[in-house]
Write a structure and sequence with these properties.
single chain; 356 residues; mainly beta; 16-stranded antiparallel sheet; 18 strands; 2% helix; globular
């Protein structure tokens, strides 16, 4: 399978390959499938692995920066071995996420295993995983000392036809290298809980809630305790996702949607965020990826409130192959931002997707 997108760069035409892999079923065993090449990798809700450059930007240089956080490209150059021993499924992966050109130690790699167990009731699924990364893209100085390892578990099930419940927890360890002269032992935590209630009515209405905890660095500790986003693929809210990386945060969100007609979906989201740890030595943050790249925002080191956001969207399925989407977002900065940067922010986006 291969998918690509044409574009231009410096006046020359080129082709960006999104998907291009070889799938070998029954590879030495009826239960084994080997997939080699550029492929999508996503486990669970995308808390750990879903996007090679996190869900804030794009490795595709032909994508304009202003919309790089909504790119559909999520592919990894990877080798994946899937062992299907139903109800167990084992995924073994190795990916070369980024090929550096400075020295032999600056490549970004990903490796690990995910074991899933499908329940025979409640449409349930339980997963345990262990992943590792050399030189995650968020690390400032890339060398052999920058390593992140994560172990975790996730479960999701439907106790009734109406309810969906899910819980995921993960622990990170390894070595965090902030600069060429600064390194520390990594010890970080993440927890995510989700719930959804489906009304099962004529308009497919549903409401949901989620809570996410991502540990932050405590300056009083000799260890580095800030959560490494690794290759996450989550969007807590449109504008929040532009301003801050997926780390050092509590995020609470409420959502809902319904379909007034078969081809139209209308939905909304409210999200509130606050820091897990005060950034006591920080008076400004610089955004290095996504639509707000090269933006510097003044913040108060003694405050934690990131702010509140309301997003509303509409999706119109014009045909089976053509879809329109419009999203409007409003972000109200919290006390973490100084008066120079506490004005309400707005975002309006429209999109067209065509499958062919």
């Amino acid at each position: 399978e291969a998918n690509g997108a044409a574009g231009t760069n410096d006046g020359y035409s080129h082709l960006d390959l999104d998907l291009g892999y070889i799938m070998l079923k029954e590879f030495f065993s009826p239960s084994a499938t080997l997939i080699v090449g550029r492929q999508n990798l996503m486990f669970g809700n995308g808390l750990i692995i879903a996007d090679p450059d996190t869900n804030q930007g794009s490795v595709n240089t032909s994508v304009p920066t202003a919309i790089s956080d909504i790119t559909l490209r999520k592919s990894f150059d990877a080798i994946r071995l899937v062992l299907d021993y139903s109800p167990y499924v084992v995924d073994l992966i190795y990916a070369k996420v980024y090929e550096g050109n400075t020295n032999v130690d600056d490549d970004v790699t990903l490796f690990g295993v995910n074991v899933g167990y499908a329940w025979n009731s409640y449409d349930g699924l339980t997963e345990v995983y262990a992943f590792g990364s050399d030189n995650a893209r968020t690390v400032t100085s890339q060398d052999e000392k920058s390593k992140t390892y994560v172990v975790g578990a996730r479960t999701q099930f439907l106790p009734t036809d109406h309810w969906v419940l899910g819980l995921e927890g993960a622990y990170q360890f390894g070595n965090y290298r902030a600069s060429t002269t600064s390194a520390a032992h990594l010890e970080a935590w993440a927890l995510q809980a989700i719930t959804e209630y489906r009304l099962l009515n004529d308009v497919n209405a549903k409401v949901g809630a989620s809570y996410t905890f991502l540990s932050g660095d405590d300056n009083g500790s000799s260890d580095y305790e800030g959560w490494d986003p690794m290759f996450e693929g989550q969007t807590p809210a449109e504008i929040m996702n532009m301003l801050k990386s997926h780390s050092n945060a509590h995020i609470l969100s409420l959502s809902g949607s319904y379909m007034p007609r078969e081809d139209l979906t209308i939905g909304g989201l409210y999200a509130k965020g606050w820091l897990a740890e005060k950034m006591v030595d920080t008076t400004s943050i610089s955004v290095t990826t996504g639509p707000a790249t090269n933006t510097t925002v003044a913040v108060k080191p003694d405050n934690r409130s990131i702010g509140d956001e309301i997003d509303v969207y509409a999706i119109y399925d014009y045909t089976e192959d053509v879809q329109f989407k419009a999203t409007c977002a409003m972000f109200i900065p919290g006390d973490w931002f100084t008066s120079a940067n506490d004005s309400t922010a707005y975002s309006l986006r429209g999109g067209l997707s065509v499958a062919f």
